[in-house]
Amino acid sequence: MARANGLSFFRTACGAVLSLFVARLGWLSATFWAPITTLVIAQPSFSEAWTPSLQRSIGTRLGAVLGALLVGRLGANPMAYGLSIFILLLLSAATHVDRTGFRIGSLMLTIIMLIQRTDPVWRVALERFAEVSVGILVALFLVKVWPEAATDTEPHTPQPHVDEPMIQELPPL
To answer: Does residue 151 surpass a pLDDT of 50?
Structure first.
């Protein structure tokens, strides 16, 4: 068991380093988001990583677009921030994004709205989206080409992603 954990940790660390290298190949300014995302996404198998990665990718897009659109119109004050998170909640529910996607979308929105920046907000949103996307893609690539071996005597059976949508149905307006 300890050997399997050690290999898993090593694989995840290799993925984080690979993400950093890939992110630094481009024009991205905060390349640390790529390995952070890879560390969050890394799973034992592709089937276990796919659904949460897809949800996180959708949430990232929603948070980046919403942050870029609203920060210029509403500013970065606490009321605007709270309203933006609420709008993200409604968009996430309408697009069937689960809690995982909403959380990373909220993180993306927070970064875009509240962190001081010198570049235009659309560029910050695009870069953060690209950095997180690199991390997701590297994590998926890693688990596809280097899946973890099953650690027990039974074959490894991937567990389905069970994160429920945050709001099952929106009430009629």
So the answer is: no
